[in-house]
Backbone:
C-alpha cells in the first residue's frame, strides 16, 4: 500500500488567514481522506473525496483532488486558533485494497 | 454511542513485562483497526479485523505482538515481552466499511522503561 506525503510538514499562520496543505501520492487511488488530530487525541475524519470527484466542501474546508498530478489539497479558510492541529491525508490503493494509509501529517499552528 | 473506547489511556511498564491494550469499537462497525503512532514512523497500521476475523496483520512488527477480537465489541493488542522501542501511542479505530471514514479512539500512550 502507498502512503501519501503531506506538504508542508509545518505551517504557522495568523488567525483569519487561509491555510493550505497538500498531499501527494504515487499510485492511483479509489478515495482520499483528510483527518485532523489535536494534540494528545485520536484522529478525526474531516472529508472523503472519491477519485472521480475534483472538489468537495465542508464548512470552512475545501478539498481538491487532481488525479493527473496525483495530488490533493486541503484549504481551511478564515482559520481560527482552534484549527491548530496536525492534518493527515489517507490514501487507499485502487488494486483492491481499500484500506487507507496515512501520511506523516502537516502540523498547523494558528496564532490568535 | 460513546465512540471508540480504549483502555488504559496511559501505561507505564518495565521492559520484559506483558502489556495488554483494550478496545471497544462502535456498535455496528464491522471493521476494527489497530495503529501505532511515533514521531519517527508516523501512524502505522498494525492489523485490521473484519467481522472479528483478522484480515491483514502484515504491519505487526514481530511475534511479540498479537491481537485478538473474540467478539464484535472487544479487541485486545498484546505485547509480550515489551521493549523500550515499543513506546508509542496505540490507536484503535473502527469503521462501518473499509472504504468509509474511520472513527478513532483516544489512544493508549505506552511507555516501556
Residues:
Amino acid at each position: 500500500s502507498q502512503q501519501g506525503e503531506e506538504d508542508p510538514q509545518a505551517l504557522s499562520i495568523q488567525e483569519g488567514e487561509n491555510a493550505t496543505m497538500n498531499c501527494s501520492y504515487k499510485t492511483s487511488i479509489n478515495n482520499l481522506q483528510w483527518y485532523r488530530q489535536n494534540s494528545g487525541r485520536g484522529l478525526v475524519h474531516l472529508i472523503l473525496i472519491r477519485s472521480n470527484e475534483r472538489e468537495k466542501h465542508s464548512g470552512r474546508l475545501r478539498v481538491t483532488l487532481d488525479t493527473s498530478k496525483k495530488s490533493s489539497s486541503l484549504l481551511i479558510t478564515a482559520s481560527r486558533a482552534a484549527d491548530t492541529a496536525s492534518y493527515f491525508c489517507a490514501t487507499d490503493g485502487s488494486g483492491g485494497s481499500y484500506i487507507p494509509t496515512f501520511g506523516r501529517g502537516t502540523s498547523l499552528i494558528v496564532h490568535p | 454511542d460513546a465512540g471508540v473506547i480504549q483502555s488504559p489511556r496511559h501505561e507505564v511498564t518495565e521492559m520484559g513485562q506483558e502489556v495488554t491494550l483494550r478496545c471497544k469499537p462502535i456498535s455496528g462497525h464491522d471493521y476494527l483497526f489497530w495503529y501505532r503512532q511515533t514521531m519517527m514512523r508516523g501512524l502505522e497500521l498494525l492489523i485490521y479485523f473484519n467481522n472479528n476475523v483478522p484480515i491483514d496483520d502484515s504491519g505487526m512488527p514481530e511475534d511479540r505482538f498479537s491481537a485478538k477480537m473474540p467478539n464484535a465489541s472487544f479487541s485486545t493488542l498484546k505485547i509480550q515481552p515489551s521493549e523500550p522501542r515499543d513506546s508509542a501511542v496505540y490507536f484503535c479505530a473502527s469503521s462501518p466499511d473499509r472504504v468509509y471514514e474511520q472513527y478513532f479512539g483516544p489512544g493508549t500512550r505506552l511507555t516501556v522503561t
